[in-house]
Specification:
5-stranded antiparallel sheet, about 325 residues, mainly beta, about 20% strand, single chain, binds 2-acetamido-2-deoxy-beta-D-glucopyranose
Length: about 325
């Protein structure tokens, strides 16, 4: 009996979460980088709990009543810049988001979110610590403006989709020509924590990245950031296909991230932790993989219909649909 218990304690946990979240809101709000600012500088697409607002001064799991994610105890918010198409005539249109493959059908846009341990199969025998209440971080920066600097972020990539299952090759910038199946953006966050700060002035210094490429084993955490957390990653699938027959005659890339970037070097993402109680730690300590973590084993989950029903109204009165004269917030 005793031996079995000890074996269970040292056995590597192999939990990895991969789940869909439908779109919660698309608006100019950024409670992490520009708290309280209405509207924020550029348009974001946001998924997760409905406590999302301009200030986010409370623990989301205390104030949210629903989430757009599969796991109903996850009131975190996850967001990235939105994508727009620029017509040769100067007008812009927002690029719709489509659901990923390998998820239940019917998810409304949104993202696929991952919390992996080391790669898809193992945590390398390390304890994976869940994020503490109040934790937040960003990865990437809209001010990155050279391909050399973009390449230094191994986790921030674009994939030209042939179909929804295409994963390679990855590039640090926008694909140079029309993609038959759309464009996927991928955002991997660092996973080594300083063990003290739930945030830092630039929202990045409390974390450290040791991964050299996407979904591959990360190196050991450094002494400055000794605590191994889950590796959080987002995949967003942009349905660019309706624009493929409008590619500009001069060959330039017509797709723009919402802060006026048609290179993609400044691609970035935001994370604001909001899992209820110790639910994320429970999942990280278990051995479940992906969908097998649902239905109380060990995480509570919900139907696609319930995910799609959760939404927040825009705090900003501005039209983001149809053909627009300028990128919202970017008018000269
Ligand atoms: C955001 O929500 C929190 C919690 O409900 C609330 O305390 C805060 O006042 C809200 N902020 C805004 C700008 O509405
Ligand atoms: C640009 O082209 C689109 C697509 O044909 C059209 O709907 C839009 O009104 C045009 N904008 C201008 C300013 O002509």
């Amino acid at each position: 009996m005793k031996l079995i218990q000890i074996a269970a304690l040292v056995a590597p946990a192999q939990a990895a979460l991969r789940f869909g979240c439908s779109t919660l809101s698309i608006q100019r709000l950024d409670p992490l980088v520009e708290p309280g600012k209405l509207p924020s500088a550029h348009v974001h697409q946001i998924v997760g709990g409905n406590a999302f607002n301009a200030t986010m001064d409370k623990d989301p799991s205390d104030v949210a009543s629903c989430t757009t994610c599969t796991f109903s105890e996850d009131f975190s918010n996850y967001w990235t810049a939105a994508m727009f198409f620029k017509h040769e005539n100067g007008s812009y249109k927002r690029v719709p988001i489509m659901q990923n493959t390998a998820l239940p059908n019917g998810i409304n846009g949104g993202m696929t979110v991952y919390y992996t341990q080391q790669d898809f199969n193992t945590n390398g025998n390390q304890k994976i610590t869940a994020f503490p209440k109040g934790f937040r971080m960003t990865v990437g920066s809209p001010t990155t403006n050279t391909v050399e600097d973009a390449k230094k972020h191994p986790g921030l990539r674009f994939v030209c989709l042939q179909d929804k299952a295409t994963r390679f090759p990855e590039s640090p910038d926008f694909p140079p020509k029309a993609c038959k199946g759309g464009i996927m953006t991928v955002h991997h966050f660092p996973s080594c924590w300083d063990g003290k700060n739930v945030d830092s002035p630039n929202h990045q210094d409390h974390m450290y990245n040791t991964a050299k490429e996407a979904f591959s084993p990360a190196g050991a955490c450094p002494a400055s950031h000794p605590v191994r957390m889950a590796q959080v990653a987002y995949e967003t699938l942009w349905d660019t296909t309706q624009f493929n027959n409008m590619w500009p005659k001069d060959g330039s890339n017509p797709f723009f991230l919402s802060y006026n970037d048609n290179k993609g070097y400044g691609t970035h993402a935001d994370y604001l932790f909001g899992w209820k109680g110790d639910s994320l730690q429970k999942a990280m300590d278990s051995k479940c993989m992906f969908q097998a973590c649902e239905n109380g084993k060990p995480l509570q989950s919900q139907s696609v219909a319930a995910m799609n029903k959760c939404a927040v109204k825009s705090s900003v009165n501005e039209n983001l649909d149809g053909w627009l004269k300028a990128l919202p917030g970017m008018s000269m």
